Amino acid sequence: MATQPVTNSASSQKAPLLGAEMHNLLHFILAQLVIWTLVPWFFAVSLPLDVVSDGLGWGHEWQWGYFKHPPLPSWTVEAFFRAFGDIGPFLLSQIAVGVTYAFVFLIGRVMMPARQALIGTLLLAGVYYFSIPTPEWNHNVAQMPVWAWATYSYLLAIRTGRWRWWTMLGLACGVAVLTKYASAVLFLAMLAHLLSTRKTAAQLATPGPYIALAILLAVIAPHLVWLVQNHFPTFGYAEGRAGHGEGVVHRIIAPFHFLLSQLATLLPALIVAAAIGLLRRVKLPSLEDENFRFLVFLGAGPALITAALSLLSGFGIRDMWGAPMWNLTGLLIVYAMQPRWPETSLRALYLWVAALFVIIPLAYVLSTAWVPEWRGKPSRTQWPDRAMAQTFNAAWTEATHAPLKIVASDGWTGGLIAMRAPGRPSIFIDCNPRHAPWITPQRLSREGALVVWQTHANDSPPATFNLPGLRIMGVKTFAWPREPRAKPLRLGWGIIPPSGPPS
Fold first, then answer.
1. Is residue 418 a contact partner of residue 426, using CB atoms and an 8 Å limit?
2. How far apart are CA 301 and CA 287, in angstroms?
3. Distance between alpha carbon 293 and the CA centroid of its chain, in Å?
4. 358-374: pLDDT as tens digits
5. Buried b (16+ CB within 10 A) or exposed e, 270-287
6. Which of 218, 385, 387, 403 is the most exposed place for a label (fewest CB within 10 A)?
7. Is 295 part of a structural domain of the chain?
8. 17 neighbors 114 (Cβ within 8 angstroms)
9. Count of helices and strands (H, E) across the chain
């Protein structure tokens, strides 16, 4: 096997995918798909928080936007839940991870032999974001394959200059925006790379980048219309969710904390790379090497840009925002360590990956099922959702003799009830019309609503839940399915009787 990277000519991009490496890649993707779909699904009673509140609760309404995020992840998880039931969201997440692996391998094949591209892909099994967080389908997980797709399209666009790849880049970037606005840092990393040399900057004098931009705008146009019509609620949410640095010290600490947390997520991959003989002292490639420069700009650039923006603006950042930023980690390690390629043990890598596919799922089960059960503190995937839906649907029917169409509650509690109740009622999230614009005053009056809240200091509903016409009905308690020692769940409830005839 040659140990030198392939050339950067167009012919190198058409190099055949070698059978053995593709065979092993497919086995790797299949293992990820089976293990990380079945293990979380088997131990879950209810579905994860983001799947319920930001996924099914929104996706069921098929809007072009929601008050927190763009719509695409919510649409896809709704479709998979309808098609496959509870296993659907878990399967969707692992399909996303598998697609990410495939694009990473294709990127690697442009730059290096298939064996090294496979090693760079398999090393991602040691990156935290590709394991424990993935069972909870959310906008961070959804970004992973889209970023990899956009990165691959951008690579071929700048290497070949062909319009079809600029078109593909525009489509991928449009889908990225519909997934999460954080994709903007990927676009900034691409722009920085494009401007880094005269050769790449020369693409700005061709139609390609402008074709990509036009297609991006066309893809997101309906969402832009929705934003204008709804007064840009997602931007207000993002600002409040991230928080702001108070003072110079906090402004400095926040981005460095983010970068340190990202390094921690990469440590298992670095340990595996060292164990198979990759991490040794070598002379690194120069940034004049266009492959290495691409991997540095696109592999590390988004995280550095995120930290820099936080430092300059004081805008707070969350560790999990790094989920899609490290797709190229394995390829960057492998390419940087070219003198070590002959000494790298592929057999040792397979053993390490197999061990990770045992150890990390076991850690997941311990953290989400066994430890919470032992401590008597239920995790989000252990809630009595079916009992809640059955009890409240029966109580609503008895009180109103009408089908349940609206559940007014927080996104999590109401989402669990709506997910299991007959007919999948809509959620009036936080009893706030800005959070649930599909619930109009006219619809609320006509269909009524079951109002449910978690009791805390007292059994009274939150002030925002005191809707006109609310009749408080009392409190219902629920035992935890797998944690009998835990204090029962107490939920206050009331009804807004429907004014229209039963339908």
1. yes
2. 14
3. 27
4. 999 999 998 887 777 66
5. bebbeebbbbeeeeebee
6. 218
7. yes
8. yes
9. 21, 5
